[in-house]
Design goal:
about 230 residues; alpha/beta; disordered C terminus; Rossmann fold
Length: about 230
């Protein structure tokens, strides 16, 4: 083990999060049940600091981002390596209309449909008018099209359905329907690292997990507002 590297990392975490946050989140990496009990209490000061330092029109939430802490975003998840502990199946700890943009990459499929719909409602609640959400999740349409192609496709489909903690997969039509159901407007299908997207530059899942981007659907939607637009 490179001692200097470890010291450098610890120094970075101490400076960013503070002593207690750093120590307890490190313990949480080895005991998720422990982290589930104390994670929010330990990390809520960091959320409050972020709210104080970042104005609403600059707030980008990386929701369910795991260990992928993105520059310029607040990354929240139950993963101890996230910036702060947030359970996406519960009410999100943000005020109404207090977030400029939400990036939710490969997260909604990890909860069941009931929790997924609740998550969409919460995202709509916390977004400011004119705010945007970018959702990426496995594309059930893609896998349905592969069913009759080959025997190997069977393994690929089962891998997506039953591995990685997936609970519910969406067709493009279903995801769009549910987004509209909670109030989102101006829905637009996008693609991986779409340079014309306000949030496409944040996409990284296909690179990090070595899969083709086509197995994922990329949907952007807005919280309706006629007078204000997001500014990222």
């Amino acid at each position: 083990m490179d001692t200097s590297h470890v010291i450098s990392k610890l120094s970075y975490y101490f400076n960013k999060y503070g002593l207690f946050h750093t120590v307890f989140s490190f313990i949480g990496r080895y005991n998720q049940e422990f982290w589930n009990l104390i994670g929010f209490s330990v990390t809520s000061p960091y959320i409050n600091k972020w709210k104080t330092q970042i104005s609403v029109d600059k707030r980008i939430l990386n929701l369910g981002g795991g260990s992928n802490c993105l520059s310029g975003c607040l990354t929240v998840d139950i993963d101890p390596r996230a910036d702060a502990y947030v359970d996406i199946t519960e009410k999100l700890p943000f005020d109404d209309c207090s977030i400029n943009a939400i990036f939710c990459e490969e997260a909604i499929e990890h909860v069941d449909l009931k929790c997924g719909l609740q998550l969409l409602r919460e995202c709509y609640r916390i977004l400011k008018p004119g705010g945007v959400i970018r959702l990426t999740t496995p594309d059930l349409n893609y896998f349905a099209s592969k069913i009759s192609e080959s025997v190997s496709a069977c393994s690929e489909i089962n891998e997506v359905f039953y591995s990685h903690g997936h609970r519910y997969l969406y067709t493009r039509e279903a995801l769009q329907f549910h987004c509209q159901e909670v109030g989102f407007t101006n829905l637009k299908m996008s693609f991986y690292q779409d340079c014309e997207s306000k949030l496409g530059y944040l996409d990284s899942h296909a690179n990090r997990f070595n899969h083709i981007p086509e197995i994922t659907q990329y949907l952007e939607a807005e919280k309706s507002n006629y007078n204000q637009r997001i500014n990222i």
